[in-house]
Amino acid sequence: MFRNYIKIAWRNLRKSKLLTGVNVLGLAIAFAACILLVLTAWRELSFDQFHTNKGRLQELYITVQRPEGEESRSNFPIPLTPALKQDFPEVKAASRFIAISGSIRYHDKTFQADVKSADADLLKMFSFPLIKGEMHQPLNSLSNVVITANMAKKIFGAEDAINKPVEIYLEGEWKSFIVSAVAKDIPDNSTISFDVVCRFENTPGYVSQKDDWGASSNEVFVQLADHATVAGFERRSGTFVNKYFTAILRDLKRDGVAPGKDGQLMSLHLMPITTIHFNSISSSGGAISKTYPYLLLLIGGFILFIACVNFMNLTIAAAFSRSREIGMRKILGAVKTQLVTQLWGEAVLICLLALVTGLVIAYLLLPGYNALFSNKLSLALLKSPGLLAGVLLGFVLVTLLSGGYPAWAIAKINTLKVLKGSLQAGKSNGLRNVLMVTQFVISSLLICCTLIAWQQLDYLRKMPLGYNRDQVISIPLPYEMDTEQALQRMRNSLSGQTGIAAISGAAINMGRGRDGASQSSIIAMDYKGHSVRSNWLRVDYDYVKALGLTLLAGRDFSQAYGTDSSGLVINEKMAAQLGGVQAALGVQLPVLDSAHPLTVIGVVKDFNFKPLKEDIAPLTMNLVKSWPVQYIFVKVAPGDLQGSMALVKKQWKQLYPGSDIDPSFLDENTDRQYRREQRYSGIFISAAILAIIISCMGLFAISVLVMTRRTREIGVRKVLGASVIGIVALVSKDFVKLVLLSVMIAAPIAWYVMDQWLQDYAYRIHINITVFVAAGGIALLVAVLTVSIQSVRAALMNPIKSIRTE
């Protein structure tokens, strides 16, 4: 019997080639889109899930109450980790972790590498398997390093890396190490990564800061003992904070800072390792908000649901042409179960064809999808047991939803009615209308959200930042060279060249350059009996001129003044903490060394030196050499920008023939800061377009159904003098009402969702009603055009032929 069902189903599908093709294509597109979105979300949610001890691994972070509000951060003083292991028996293992260099050398060859320093516990805590060399204590010596397999191949080729001598560029010189072990390559879904890792004691500044509880630099990861709990650790941490952070607590109390909700001025907390990818507090994490992958899953579900609704409508529409077949089967003894099985079997075949086609489409689109949205996805992820089970479950649900209900609805129709060919879908069409409204609510919601996200990103791109980003070239300097000398040599080489307006440098880039680096430093100092905190930025001469900053008082750093090495240039926010713009000039601040205070020589207008997700903060610029310059900024004249870029590269090549640089304009850097949002915005735009296309396919199917039922009515109206436009308007008005209702439902939902999303940005647009009008207009126009195709065709039919239609 089963074989017979399959044979009949295949014949029916072949007989209705157009209908089958539309069903398969619609579902295949939905399956392909859903697979790509699910793979993207799955990869994001899989970050750090591969660690064997993931349930016990935590990252430490601290909350500090400040006069301006609560501050949360994950960087800590160097001596904290040893004290933590000593005072907390529930801490089984702990490791500090920090980036220390970008260059490693073997013989006369230098390689760019992500060099980190950590405690020996790191490789015991995390699942970074060692595949060669010392397996038990690879970092037992201060001169040992562990490198990844890919880095070993890059440096040594086919040679065995174990016990090979290498050099790492640290604190302005090359230091020697021995490769003690090779680790398996770090998975790309690991938040913590490195090419080379050495003992933490090799960290620059370690000796001078190993007992300093006032300077915070490194991250701290802990593995709790099996009996320990996060709540128990955090409860006991208050005593630890009071014991070791006495000086900071004293200053906070002196400044009159109110305790937080837990009654503490400072509190230690833990975040699970599996959440740091989504946590902006973590220095390693904060890549995206956790809502993004769930939004992708939701959108994938929306698209698949819309396709299922289309399938249902098309299946019910097709039942009109099979009414006599169904009636005859009932007369000849077929029971409802057999009819449902037969009709549902046809649906399963269509869904199976659509799934296979969707997989092929996804496979063909995957390379372009990865390139467009900067993903690293592979269909091999579908082999994951959890994901494979989810796909199979989704397929079963789709077949039940899209094929099961129509089969049940058709099979239960009265036998006499089907024999007469008077099969009706119901006078009220309630279910059909609800499904169509749901389709267009989803489509309108996606359109609204996409338009608002696009407006916000466009606003960020065009917003004045307070500095010149269009005519300034940023040059990231290689770690291994004397960067101060490189800046001076470039200044000498470019000065006086046509098109070069100013040359300066800084320890921190503006925006995010092509080297991917982005960082900041904060320093605290005492001023008139209270603490003053400020972002700390090492710059060089002519920084204000090179970036086009606006001086409000005083002057920029200049080589004409020999005392400027002990000078400071601050922004308005910092000046406000010192009594105002004019009052700040000449103020001496005990930065780093109270015996040799630094003097404020200039105040600039506030500018956005951080991403626009954050408010402008106090900023102090200085010439202190202990923070080396890492970027050169070259201001060029407007006009021939590409020519100026070529000149900069040429001069660098002449000075350093064996070294490559990757310069970029600052406007590129600032755009790169929002690349992640742009990537997801692109995915949402694509999803919105797909949702509209698939919804219109369903709308077209419904219009075919309606026209089939009203053919005779349309013929009569034409005979009585109705115009084509009048008939089209009559047929379309019900659909227009439903689409308008959909927009009205979607608009407040979209407003709430996007208003919450915009809260992440310190600078944001105000949602305007024109967005919802535009979204409604788009949905309405597409719907009317879709319905009009069929209604115009029906209106143009010969009325005599229409009236004679059964």
TrEMBL record:
Single GO term (MF): transmembrane transporter activity
Subcellular location: Cell membrane
Main location: membrane
Residue spans crossing the bilayer: 21-42, 294-322, 343-366, 386-410, 431-454, 683-708, 720-753, 765-787
Keywords: Cell membrane, Membrane, Transmembrane, Transmembrane helix
Membrane topology: Multi-pass membrane protein
Domain MacB-like periplasmic core as annotated: residue spans: 20-234, 532-641
Annotated Pfam families: FtsX, MacB_PCD
Cellular component, GO annotation: plasma membrane
Record domain ABC3 transporter permease C-terminal: where: 298-414, 686-799
Source taxon at top rank: Bacteria
This protein's name: FtsX-like permease family protein
